[in-house]
Write a structure and sequence with these properties.
The complex is a heterodimer. By secondary structure, chain A is mostly helical. Chain A has 24 helices and 8 strands. In chain B, strands 11-21-20-18-17-14-13-12 form an 8-stranded parallel β-sheet. A 3-stranded mixed β-sheet of chain B has the order 6-22-23, covered by helices on one side. In chain B, strands 1-4 form a two-stranded antiparallel sheet. Classes of the chains: A mainly alpha, B alpha/beta.
């Protein structure tokens, strides 16, 4: 791996230092060699500086890159704006001899030269391409299992794709993969790839900016997402600050906003305070509380069920149509019980006892191509209920008889006599008693 | 930057000389070119009952659910899992009818490969065996049959011997006349393995295939009285009950190798080469090295299992001899040692050296042999057909008078009992089947094994996918295949007037060539059809 130098950019350091805090914390935790560099300026930002003059924009960018070359580092940046500028400017200079000459003639006046060797990577690009998903996955100690995350790609991480080449701009997947490797679910929602509209507030059109933010936040809320996750300071301000303004106006909306390194830091086991989460305008506590609850509940599910399969089963539900009990009992919702379990509501499911209505006809097992079925899931629930001594009367009687004699029912002697059948051979109940000693707290290994 | 006039350019001369990008650093950041999907996924929405089974079943995540099933056609590999699992049978995965201008030199495959390499700058990978349209020699050989002058045999009414013994056979046997008329064997026999039919399973490691898939193969081997092969993945605890019919492999990475492993198996195989990728090593990506794989291979979790191209202690026939005898020492000379090589140009001389180095069995893997992952260019262009390799090795060993010192196993593209009979007639003692066994398990030959996302649960370590294989059901299917081929082989032997498969071995006189060029027939030692004895 190369040596890296941080390129924080103006907004992260000036307005959103908590993003800097979480990025430093995470990079240090992952053991990435990344240092600060003296003498950097604004990248420069395209919509402001480039409008002052393209040459100023290009020379400023080349000067920043020249500093990286002198320090012998590649830039890592948390800001897609800086990323787009530095990568775009490098691409422009690389493909034009005129630009190479012009830029270097200017830089000579301050004793610098730009050779075209420094590279720039956005933090996400670096994590996905260079650090690697599996290396991240291995280091996750507090998985975000069961948390629904709405990913906001933003515009300038992906576009213009000819310069940036981070991911397919129309069907990006890498940010999703980075989030899912932490155990979370990436929620599909309307307008996932749309712009945050942050620039509108810089051109003094607050109303339009708020309208764009509101639209995305409502789409995300409609999908019951626990948070929106992004990788851009401008988008962060739009969804955090602008959401706060919307709330003050009386908008009923609360979507916690997380920069990716904050989400990653949590999954790596870092404390919220180490990540600067208290600096958000939108309170992050509801997210943390739900996550804690999820983790405990899922831990309980994992004790007895294969949680991943349970979730798959809940999402699928194809066999629910085939369950014969649902034909006669409209209140029986087998897939609903599975969904409750996959949400971690073990106690509630046991209390309601609905699963006892599964008649174990195997229809769902036959229909399941995962060789995992509602029936199998309910059997585990039944065992758990039996361990706690909460079973329907009929089942309890059968269990008692089996423990007593090793048989479920005793035959009637007179009926057998009428049919001319001999006395049944002796049962081996005593050996069973010896084998099991009928400890109610017996658990599977 | 504006275009500059010539004066300005002169003024700037030298400034651009400072620009010196480092061209040695690889760049992988390219936006992929449009490349049309290979398959088109269609769903008859009239009949679809929106059960989402297809979405759940796709290991490549080509399908997603919005208000209906949506397909990312580019991700579809044509494995047909979704079709097979659709309760309404309303899915069709069809080749994309999109038409490129035909070109006799630049096939669409060549074009797509160039686009892909422009995107990635990488070695193209593939799975399974060579699919290029080389002539399949098996399809140009025909078998003899008895008519009039010698009687054929009816296998349903008369005994038919398929039993085969793999291992070194003595030059001659000496007998001691004991007291009375009892005879005792004086010659000390080398260890031989008895198999009930001349079929063994090809090496497929746990890691390259899933544990349930390997278990199915091992159980089928035990049931049929034949051998399975661990490949280079060690012996998983769950497979110990089937170790008595396992060939345990020692390959260049030495994964899972220890004295107990050698002694657990029925035979030990030294893997020098593989038909699908002659001359190169193996690579099991770290992503597939789960806890269980790591314990079985004896490597850290998540580390890449890299098998070097050569065995680093074998640089000559003499070195090979050292390893063969090291293994024989470790196993007390109680097990045959097999050496597996890829069929290459000089295969006859190499095989002769291997026999002289002390190998009891030679496993010849032809260039159609399968793999879990190989560079496409290697798979499709290196090595020679197994038909030729077996014929020339058998001939060479006979000429040198050492054919009895080793058994030959032919592998790499055995598709049917006919291929098996022809391979035996060309000189093999037995054949090995890999792809055929996987097909019996449900594989559809989509050739995407190297992705580790096999939707059929065969070539993957993802527990959600591997649970799709029930080892018992799989074993039954594979055992059925072996039974079927054995029955067909008996039919063939009967038609040839033979009652034991060993009578067919190396009997090139019972083969004739059709539409094969004379020089190939010459090499095979087979006459053209129409030429009598």
């Amino acid at each position: 791996m190369s040596r890296y130098g941080y390129f924080w950019g103006c907004y992260v350091q000036g307005r959103l230092p908590h993003i800097e805090k979480s990025t430093r914390a995470v990079m240090q935790h992952l053991g990435v060699d990344c240092a600060d560099t003296e003498g950097l300026t604004c990248c420069p930002e395209k919509t402001t500086v480039a409008n002052m003059g393209h040459d100023e924009w290009l020379v400023t960018a080349a000067r920043n890159l020249a500093i990286a070359e002198d320090a012998g580092v590649d830039f890592l940046t948390p800001c897609p704006g800086c990323f787009g500028t530095l990568k775009g400017a490098a691409a422009e200079v690389a493909s034009s001899a005129a630009a190479q000459g012009e830029v270097n003639r200017e830089l000579r006046r301050v004793g610098r030269s730009y050779r075209g060797t420094a590279r720039t990577a956005h933090i996400l690009e670096f994590l996905h391409r260079d650090f690697g998903l599996s290396a991240i996955g291995e280091r996750v100690t507090a998985p975000l299992t069961g948390m629904r995350i709405a990913i906001h790609y933003g515009c300038h991480l992906l576009k213009p794709s000819a310069d940036l080449a981070v991911d397919d701009p129309a069907h990006p997947t890498k940010f999703d993969e980075l989030v899912e490797t932490l155990g979370a679910t990436s929620v599909a929602y309307e307008g996932k790839l749309s712009c945050c509209g942050g620039l509108l507030s810089r051109v003094d059109d607050q109303d339009a900016a708020q309208a764009m933010a509101r639209r995305k936040l409502r789409d995300v809320a409609a999908e019951r997402a626990d948070a929106i996750c992004l990788a851009c300071p401008a988008c962060f301000m739009q969804y955090d600050t602008t959401q706060f303004l919307l709330q003050r106006k009386g908008e009923q909306i609360h979507v916690p906003v997380l920069y990716y390194t904050e989400l990653l830091g949590l999954a790596l086991g870092l404390a919220p305070d180490d990540l600067g989460l208290s600096s958000h305008r939108i309170d992050i506590q509801p997210f943390l509380i739900r996550w804690q609850g999820q983790r405990e509940a899922i831990e309980r599910v994992r004790e007895r069920w294969d949680y991943d399969l349970l979730r798959k089963c809940a999402e699928c539900g194809a066999c629910a149509f085939d369950c014969p009990v649902t034909r006669v009992d409209v209140a029986f919702d087998p897939n609903g019980i599975i969904r409750q379990l996959s949400d971690g509501q073990v106690d509630q499911v046991l209390r309601e006892g609905e699963f006892w209505r599964c008649v174990e006809c195997c229809t769902c097992r036959e229909a399941c191509f995962q060789r995992y079925s509602m029936m199998d899931i309910f059997r585990v629930a039944k065992q758990l209920a039996a361990e706690r001594g909460v079973t329907p009367a009929g089942t309890a009687e059968g269990m008692a008889a089996f423990r007593k004699s090793g048989r479920l029912v005793e035959g009637s002697a007179s009926q057998r006599k009428r049919l001319g059948l001999p006395e049944p051979a002796a049962a081996g109940g005593s050996e069973l008693t010896q084998l099991f000693e009928w400890r109610p707290e017996r658990r599977r290994p | 930057m504006p275009q500059l006039d010539l004066d300005t350019r002169d003024a700037l001369a030298g400034a651009e000389a400072e620009f010196a990008p480092d061209h040695t650093r690889p760049r992988a950041d390219v936006v992929p070119l449009y490349s049309p999907p290979e398959f088109v996924w269609r769903n008859d929405t009239e009949r679809c009952r929106r059960c989402k089974r297809c979405v759940m079943q796709c290991g490549w995540r080509a399908l997603s659910w919005q208000d209906r099933v949506g397909a990312d056609h580019n991700k579809c590999v044509g494995c047909h899992r979704c079709e097979a699992m659709c309760p309404e049978k309303c899915i069709v995965v069809a080749p994309n009818p999109q038409h490129y201008k035909p070109h006799a030199l630049w096939s669409v495959t060549h074009r797509k490969n160039v686009w892909k390499q422009g995107d990635t700058g990488g070695v193209l990978l593939t799975g399974m065996g060579n699919d290029a349209p080389y002539q399949v020699i098996f399809d140009h050989l025909v078998l003899d049959a008895c008519q009039v002058t010698n009687p054929s045999i009816d296998p349903l009414r008369e005994p038919m011997e398929l039993r085969t013994f793999l291992g070194r056979k003595p030059e001659r046997v000496e007998l001691d006349a004991g007291p009375g008329s009892a005879l005792a064997l004086k010659t000390r026999l080398d260890p031989n393995l008895e198999i009930a039919t001349p079929i063994v399973f090809a090496p497929m490691s746990y890691g390259s295939i899933s544990l349930p898939a390997q278990k199915a193969i091992a159980m089928a081997a035990a049931e049929c009285g034949i051998l399975w092969n661990t490949g280079e993945g060690g012996l998983h605890e769950d497979l110990r009950p089937y170790a008595h019919c396992a060939v345990v492999q020692c390959a260049s990475g030495r994964f899972g190798v220890h004295a107990g492993y050698f002694n657990a198996g029925a035979a030990v195989e030294i893997k020098i080469g593989q038909g699908a990728k002659p001359g190169i090593g193996g690579h099991l990506p770290g992503e597939k090295v789960s806890l269980e794989v790591s314990q079985t291979r004896m490597i850290p979790v998540g580390s890449d299992a890299l098998s070097p191209a050569p065995q680093h202690d074998i640089y000559s026939i003499e070195d090979l001899r050292q390893l063969i005898y090291a293994i024989k020492e470790a196993t007390d000379y109680a097990k045959p040692v097999c050496v597996k090589i890829a069929a290459v140009h000089n295969v006859a001389a190499i095989a002769s050296g291997i026999v002289r180095a002390g190998a009891d069995i030679i496993y010849l893997d032809g260039f159609r042999g399968g793999t879990g992952a190989a560079p496409t260019v290697i798979r499709d262009h290196l090595g020679i057909p197994v038909e030729i390799a077996v014929a020339v090795v058998d001939e060479r060993l006979r000429q040198e008078g050492i054919r009895n010192q080793a058994s030959l196993i032919a592998a790499g593209g055995i598709r049917s009992s006919a291929d098996m009979a022809k391979a035996i007639a060309l000189g093999a003692d037995a054949v090995a089947i890999g792809t055929a066994a996987l097909l019996a398990l449900g594989c559809t030959l989509c050739q995407k094994c190297y992705t580790g996302r096999c939707s059929w649960g065969i070539c993957t370590q993802d527990p959600e996918l591997t649970r799709r294989i029930d080892p018992l059901v799989g074993a039954r299917r594979i055992a059925n295949l072996v039974r079927a081929w054995s029955a067909e082989l008996e039919e063939i032997l009967g038609a040839l007037g033979l009652n034991a498969v060993e009578s067919l071995r190396g009997s090139k006189e019972r083969l004739r060539g059709l539409d094969v060029d004379p020089s190939t027939l010459d090499v095979l030692g087979v006459k053209p059809a129409g030429v009598g004895a």
